[in-house]
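Help!! Second protein's tokens look totally different from the first
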Amino acid sequence: IFSVGTIFVAAVLFGFLPAWKAAHVNVESALKSGARSSGHGLARARKTLIVSELTLAFMLLISASLLVKSFWRLSNVNPGFDPQHVLTFRLRLPDSKYDKPEKSIRAVKELRRRISELPGVTRLGITSGIPLGRQNEFGYWLEGQPELDNQVQWPVALAYYVDEDLCRTLGIPLLAGRMLSETDGTDSPAVVLVDDEFVRVHFRGDMHAALGRRLRFKGNNEPWREIVGVVRHVTHYGLEEHARAEVYQPWLQMSSGPSVSFHYFRAMDFAVKTAGAPTSYLPAIKAELRKVDNDLTLGNVATLEKKLHDSTATRRLNLGLITTFALLSLALSAVGLYGVMSYGVNQRTTEIGIRMAVGAQPKDILKLILREGLVLAVIGTLLGVSGALALTRFLSSLLLGISATDPVIYLAASALLLVVAIAACFWPARKASTVQPLEALRYE
């Protein structure tokens, strides 16, 4: 109903001006001046509409180009992990049945062992938060300076409990030190891995300076944990996130922390690296789960590639919409410019015939018509630049790594608009250059 109403209103509004002009023609003046001079007001109105179309087309073209370049930059962002052939899911153990950490650990270990032994499973890791999934923010303090009494003011990092194989499963590279091992348990010293963003913030990028330093998390009973390795930063929030420091703790050392951590034993995320299509392994994984506990189910099942793809869904939607509108607007501008120039050539047939009769060459007529169309395009482009500078301020939050006033984008869009305008004017100009003087002046 809205679309039909819009079409009706548009038809009435844009049909009103020509109808009003036609209804107010001065017959005597029109007969005296002849057909050649009638309709100059309408010609100006048509040119004004064409310039407006070109202006809007340029603004949308700039917006679409900025989003395309920004999306291209985004698609080249290194997420810090390898999403290929990785199936993820969450194992949620019932609180009433698994009321002690030992029971939860036993069930998780057994399921991990069974899935690891399935044919085609190359690696398996577990974590309290898979990338692009659940995030955990913990306040922490780095040893070496007096602690602030108010722990609310402590710096905050994304902190996860992981097993010794999680980083290898996700392809998170080790940059310095060592990875976690299966010996990092409750009876061994508390250790952590940090990412290169953590090192950049606290050690000016010197990874070896970070090794051996200690930190502890917010809480009265939290132990000091030694930094034993540095890994690549992972985009846990998405490809366009502002980098946050990340810390990885051995999952078996959760019991050395506050009791609030125990619930993670009952809700661990699994990352399963497979040789083939990840989802094809799901029936076999569910069968192994039933052998561990027939009452358990899997949640949040998805491939890591799909998670990564879905993280850019909103940006792709915005890109698709604005690009579609820009191309439609550009096409409508070209059609409108072609129509105006064709109509103008028909109206000026007599004038063109006179020009050619007194010595004008076809190439002169071609240049004349192309010049007139190009003037409209240049005016539309100049107005479009001003409009685009105002419009793109609202796009700044959607742009990644580029400026809303990127000169390359503006120059490329201007060149494209002018090329389209010249193409739209070429056929009317070519038609004008083929006018025969005798035919044009026959009825004069």
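Here's the second one for comparison:
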Amino acid sequence: MKALIGAMAAVFMASGANAQTMNAEQFHQRATALKKKGAMAIFSGGEIKALTNEGKAAAAKAREQRLAAVKAGQKPRYCPPEGKHSMDSNEFMNRLGVIPAAERARIDMTEAMTRILIQKFPCPAA
């Protein structure tokens, strides 16, 4: 199960991401429901694929926005160290769950992902 939701949180996986289709609260509710299925989640291939694609799209867009800010000479919202990074499903869902539900309902997954990454990789104070 960790691998299934962990794939959704591959925060620096670029390429092949589809457009986002749900807000952060919808994603949270659907991922939570899937996680509650435990081992039976394996039979929810369509849902796993939808959530994985949504997570990848959000991660790619958040990364694009950070790189565009850096290229424009602006301070990025988050500052990951060099190299590859990952986040397991528990960490991702815990960090997503910290964002209040009413706020999650108003933001897309790119903004939610960016907020998660700000907490995980804060930029040094100027």
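Reply: Different proteins will give different token patterns, so don't panic. Residues 45-71 form the longest helix (27 residues).
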